[in-house]
Structure formats: C-alpha cells, structure tokens
From TrEMBL:
<feature type="transmembrane region" description="Helical">
    <location>
        <begin position="237"/>
        <end position="257"/>
    </location>
</feature>
<feature type="transmembrane region" description="Helical">
    <location>
        <begin position="452"/>
        <end position="477"/>
    </location>
</feature>
<feature type="transmembrane region" description="Helical">
    <location>
        <begin position="37"/>
        <end position="56"/>
    </location>
</feature>
<keyword id="KW-1003">Cell membrane</keyword>
<dbReference type="InterPro" id="IPR004772">
    <property type="entry name" value="TrkH"/>
</dbReference>
<comment type="similarity">
    <text>Belongs to the TrkH potassium transport family.</text>
</comment>
<feature type="transmembrane region" description="Helical">
    <location>
        <begin position="387"/>
        <end position="409"/>
    </location>
</feature>
<feature type="transmembrane region" description="Helical">
    <location>
        <begin position="133"/>
        <end position="158"/>
    </location>
</feature>
<feature type="binding site">
    <location>
        <position position="217"/>
    </location>
    <ligand>
        <name>K(+)</name>
    </ligand>
</feature>
<feature type="transmembrane region" description="Helical">
    <location>
        <begin position="68"/>
        <end position="89"/>
    </location>
</feature>
<keyword id="KW-0813">Transport</keyword>
<feature type="binding site">
    <location>
        <position position="313"/>
    </location>
    <ligand>
        <name>K(+)</name>
    </ligand>
</feature>
<feature type="transmembrane region" description="Helical">
    <location>
        <begin position="9"/>
        <end position="31"/>
    </location>
</feature>
<keyword id="KW-0406">Ion transport</keyword>
<keyword id="KW-0997">Cell inner membrane</keyword>
<feature type="binding site">
    <location>
        <position position="429"/>
    </location>
    <ligand>
        <name>K(+)</name>
    </ligand>
</feature>
<dbReference type="InterPro" id="IPR003445">
    <property type="entry name" value="Cat_transpt"/>
</dbReference>
C-alpha cells in the first residue's frame, strides 16, 4: 500500500470535512445558540490533520487498487469520527452515540439515537443533514467512478471489462464524472428547496429536508419526521424527489448528453418503476382491508412509505409499526432491495436482483435442456460470468451479515424482532426498522456495544461490503 498517496487523499478529505463545519458554525453564531465553538474547534482539528497529511505526502501521487480500498474505507471512518466531535462538544450525546449518529449521517442511513430532535440547536440540525448530503454525493461518485475501477460495485455490471485503476486513467475519469454529478446533485437539491419553500416550509427545514431527500438519508428536523408538517403537498414533493434520487445518476448524465434511449431501454429503471407501482397497489389494499384506511388515504400513505423504504431514505408520515402484519412484511421485504445502482440508495440494488433472477431462470432451463448455451443479458449487453459470480457472492455475504449481526445484537439482550429490524435497517442504510427501532422510535435503548456493531454494519452496507472486507484480510497488509 502506498501510504503517501493514502495520507494525501485522506488529508484532503479531512480538509473538506473541516470546511463543511463552517456553515453550521455560522448558523450557530447567527441564531446565538452558543455552540459555534463546537464546530470551530472541530474544524480546526480537521484542518490541522488534513494539512499534516498533505505536508507529509508531497511528490507524485501513484494510486493502485489497494490504495483505493484503503482511501474509501478509512475516508468514511475518518469522516464519521470527525463528524462525531460536534455532538460531544455541544453536549448532545456521549462518544458512542455521537459516533453512531455521525456514521448514520455520512452513510446516509438515518438511524438516530436522539429522541427529541426538535430540541437540538439549529447548527446541529444543519450538521446532521449536511453529513448526509456530503455522504450521498460521495456515494454517487464512488459507485459510478471509483468502485468500477476497483473491480466491485453495482455499476461493475456496466464496466466489467475495465481493469483496475492506473495513474493515467483513474484521475481524469473521476474528475469528469465527479464534476458533472456535482452539478446534477446540487441542481436536484436546489430544486427541491424551492418546491418546499413554496409549500410553506421554513428555510432551515427546507434545506435540511432537501439535503436528506436527495441523499436518501432520512434525517428530519422534526420528531415525527415528514408527517409532522401535515401537508400532502410537502409529502408529495419529498416522495417525488426521493424517487428521482433512487434513479441511477449515470442515466442523468446520459440525458444531459441527449442519450435518452439508454434510459428508456434500461432494465433496472423499468423494474424500479414496476416494483414501486405494484408495491404501492398491494400495500394500499392491505391498509384498506386491515387498517381501516380510505382509498385516498391508503394510496397516499402507501406511496410515500414504499418510495421511502425502496429508496432506503427512511422518512415517515406515520408509524407503520402499528399497521397490519402483511403491510409490515411488504415493507420488510423492500428493505432488502434498494433502488438503482449508481444512486444514493442502499440495499442490494435492483441491478443485482435482475442478474440473480435471470441466473436462476437460466439454471432452471438447463435442467430441461442440459446442452443449451445461455448467456445472461442486461439491457442488451451480455453479463460476463465473472460478474455473475460476484453478484452471487455479494448476495450470500449480504444475507450472512444480516443474519449474523441480528443474532449478535439479539444475544446482547435485544428482542429478535428489533434485532432483525436494526440489522437490515443499518445494512441497507434505511434508518427505521421494525420492532423497537421502528419509525416512531430511536436506537437510544440499544446497548452501546450493539450500537458500535450497527455503525460498522452501516459502513459495510454503504461501501458494498467488499470494500471494507478487503481491508480486514491479512493479504491486504502484506507488502506487494
């Protein structure tokens, strides 16, 4: 591993985090909450660490695949640790809860240990939302520009023939993709802020909810989440932007380049739309049949909650924990799926579900026609066998970590329903789960050791499992 390269990039990330502390500091100073110093001290720490990293890594930067894994993993961990400091300095929560909250922010999970969000100072509210917005943009750039170059990630299905990163290919590609994606990401955020302001939402609420919608993060400035505004208009606007944020951002790049055919022929986006419509229809029926909703109320509630869970945002308009068991089962199943690869959503991703389904169908067909030669295609392109094996491996690891974390959390004294809900909610980066960590509850009552494990689960799910697991193997640390 080239430690000089890793130090330089991590130093740059630390500087970005330090600069990001300034808007909450300015807001805290402007509204006289007395927490300005918490952000300024943290910003100073981040800037000093960042400058130290840059100062000790001068010279030509050469990045190899191993360096990329280290940068991605340690970058997210470092950001979460720095992001936790303001919570502690401001007296919001202790170190363990602060790390949990910060990791939940940067991984755009949305799980929270803070019961009374409305009592938080304005600067902290902005910082919580800003961590999700930064994390969401980072994930889009990572999944489209970086992970395919490292040979992993959902977008690898489009980039299977691309080798690992080299000094002459990696930087121009990331720079070009990141610049364009930045424009799309900011554009969606500003557009949503305008729509929310038009609906009567205050400026701070509008900015925070736009940050957490486009990033599919789910942190809210209200205890009852989006439902506290009691506005069908606001709920509809947020639902629309959640859905847009669950779309592969690479398709937005295609639309900007006037390549609309790619979006129309993309199998993943078609499944995304069909799955949302079918889930909304079924959930609406269950709410009418078992929970006493009217057609209008059921459709509205079902549409918002399905989009929120499918995109792994986690906003809520009502407590689905009190809905019928079949309604909860629908939402629980959606928690595994996620939206499109290359979006800010978590979960397994629909692109992998498509490949798994086609591979299973292919195996069934071979039982009837053993000599048949079948190639799995995705949107007209043949999916290489290597990619199919990676998808199968990812799926097995996903289920393994879901069950393992649930069992460990349960062994710490948490009831099994809550343990299962917390495990999938953190691994899929959703936020609210089932049981005692439902949409009307928090993770405050979870044991501290379990919170650390769940924070690690967030990181695993957000970075596509392999990125983190590679760091944990002995071979990674051997000199090459």
């Amino acid at each position: 591993m080239n430690t000089r390269t890793v130090r330089r990039v991590l130093g740059a990330i630390s500087i970005v985090i330090g600069i990001a502390m300034l808007p909450p500091a300015i807001l805290s100073f402007g509204v006289h909450t007395g927490h300005t110093w918490a952000f300024l001290v943290t910003a100073l720490i981040a800037l000093v660490l960042g400058l130290a990293g840059l100062a000790t890594s001068r010279g030509e930067m050469v990045m190899k695949t191993r360096d990329g894994f280290a940068i991605v993993t340690f970058g997210w961990i470092g950001a979460a640790l720095l992001g936790a400091i303001p919570y502690v300095l401001a007296g919001v929560c202790g170190p363990v809860d602060a790390i949990f909250e910060s990791m939940s922010g940067f991984t755009t999970t949305g799980s929270s240990v803070i019961a009374d969000v409305e009592s938080l100072p304005a600067g902290i509210l902005l910082w919580r939302s800003l961590t999700q917005w930064i994390g969401g943009l980072g994930i889009v750039v990572l999944s489209i520009a970086v992970l395919p170059l490292l040979g992993i990630g959902g977008m690898q299905l489009f980039k299977a023939e691309m080798p690992g990163p080299t000094t002459d290919r990696m930087y121009p590609r990331i720079r070009t993709a990141a610049t364009t994606l930045w424009g799309v990401y900011v554009g969606l955020t500003l557009l949503e802020v305008i729509f929310l302001l038009f609906g009567g939402m205050g400026l701070l609420d509008a900015v925070c909810h736009a940050f957490c919608t486009v990033s599919t993060g789910g942190f809210s400035t209200r205890n009852a989440s989006v439902g506290s505004f009691q506005s069908n208009y606001i709920e509809t606007v947020i639902a629309v932007f959640m859905f847009l944020s669950g779309i592969n951002f690479a398709l937005y790049l295609s639309l900007l380049r006037l390549r609309a055919k790619r979006a129309l022929h993309d199998e993943e986006i078609r499944l995304y739309v069909v799955l949302a419509v079918v889930s909304i229809a079924f959930l609406s029926w269950t709410l009418i049949a078992h929970s006493g909703f009217t057609w209008t109320g059921a459709t509205h509630q079902a549409a918002f909650q399905v989009v929120s869970i499918l995109t792994t945002t986690g906003f809520g308009t009502s407590d689905f924990h009190v809905w019928s068991e079949d309604a909860q089962l629908v939402l629980f199943c959606l928690m595994f799926l996620g939206a499109c690869a290359g979006s800010t959503s978590g979960g397994i991703k629909l692109i992998r579900i498509i490949v798994l389904a086609k591979h299973s169908l292919s195996l069934a067909t071979k039982q009837l026609h053993p000599r048949a030669v079948q190639k799995i295609r995705f949107s007209g392109s043949v999916v290489p066998e290597e990619v199919i094996l990676r998808v199968l491996g990812f799926f097995m690891l996903y289920i393994f970590f879901f069950l393992s974390v649930a069992l460990i959390v349960s062994a710490m004294g948490v009831d099994i329903d809550t343990a299962l809900g917390a495990s999938i909610a953190t691994l899929s980066n959703i936020g609210p789960g089932i049981g005692e960590v439902g949409p009307a509850s928090t993770y405050a009552a979870i044991p501290s050791a379990a919170k650390i494990l769940l924070a690690f689960n967030m990181l695993l799910g957000r970075l596509e499992l392999y990125t983190v697991l590679v760091i944990l193997t002995p071979i990674f640390w051997r000199r090459s």
